[in-house]
Amino acid sequence: MIGTDGTLGPSEEARMKVLLVNGSPHTEGCTYTALREVEGRLNVEGIATEYFQIGTKPVYGCIACHSCNNSDYCALTEDRCNDLIKMAEQSDGFIFGSPVYYSGPNGALCAILDRAFYAGGRAFFQKPGAVVVSCRRGGATAAFDRLNKYLMISQMPVVSSQYWNIIHGNSPEETRQDLEGLQIMRTLGKNMAWLLKSLANSPRPEQEPWIGTNFIR
Ligand SMILES: Cc1cc2nc3c(=O)[nH]c(=O)nc-3n(C[C@H](O)[C@H](O)[C@H](O)COP(=O)(O)O)c2cc1C
Q: From ligand 1's centre to the CA of 102, what distance in Å?
């Protein structure tokens, strides 16, 4: 994997890894079908992949305790948020997938990402990422925009495709019939691999000390 200084020897390229986060409770549903298509292209390009499945167990929302100001992990330890942070630490890039629920991402995914990015943001910082969303019919761009906010506040180069990363279907069988959606996913995988390889050995930009203002002071 790429070091925190952005360095990676050319022979290590094949060891770069993308974490595929499936935010759907259906571990092999429509979102997964889209992620698999991205994964196939990543693997062809020599990039390793790993899944984080959100599953069906309860996920806590952030309780704004700010314990993570003094830690790299979330103080709520009864769900898998800290597992996600630890997997992110070992990953060079990310694809976040979600079904569309009422024109937004799945609530459980937002709950875990609020905490993973707030507590463990350094595990995602400046690493390439992309979002894919799966819907039956509508609301996909709103969900897509919402999830991209996590990436953009973390200075993650956002990987794009030939269209917004949306796939349509209410079942995996229907999803596989969205041929354009599947092609968008393959193009995304190819572009993610291209960006990862291009960024290997490229030093990351230095950061200015943060200037935090609340508009009034
Ligand atoms: C609670 C809920 C809300 C949904 N809201 C929408 C919606 O706003 N727009 C839409 O097109 N599909 C909606 N759907 C359908 C799913 O987004 C769609 O079936 C998706 O592809 C399922 O992906 P999955 O199999 O990975 O869970 C909703 C499904 C559920 C369970």
A: 8
Nearest CA to ligand 1 atom 22: 99
Give percent above pLDDT 90 in the chain: 90
216 lies in some domain: no
Q: How many angstroms separate the alpha carbon of residue 97 from the centre of ligand 1?
A: 12
DSSP the chain: ---TTS---GGGGGG-EEEEEE-SS-TTSHHHHHHHHHHHHHHHTT-EEEEEE--SS--PPP----GGGG-SS-S--SSSHHHHHHHHHT-SEEEEEEEEETTEE-HHHHHHHHHHHHHHGGGTTT--EEEEEEESSS-HHHHHHHHHHHHHTTTPPBP--SS-SEEE-SSHHHHHH-HHHHHHHHHHHHHHHHHHHHHTTPPPPP-PPP----S--
Domain that holds residue 172: 12-198
> CB under 6 Å to ligand 1: residues?
24, 26, 29-32, 99-103, 134-139, 169-170
Ligand 1 centroid distance, CA of 31 (Å): 10
**How does pLDDT run across 114-153, given as a tens digit for each residue?**
999 999 999 999 999 999 999 999 999 999 999 999 999 9
What's the CATH number where 178 sits? 3.40.50.360
Nearest CA to ligand 1 atom 8: 102
How much is the pTM? 0.95
Give the number of domains in the chain.
Answer: 1
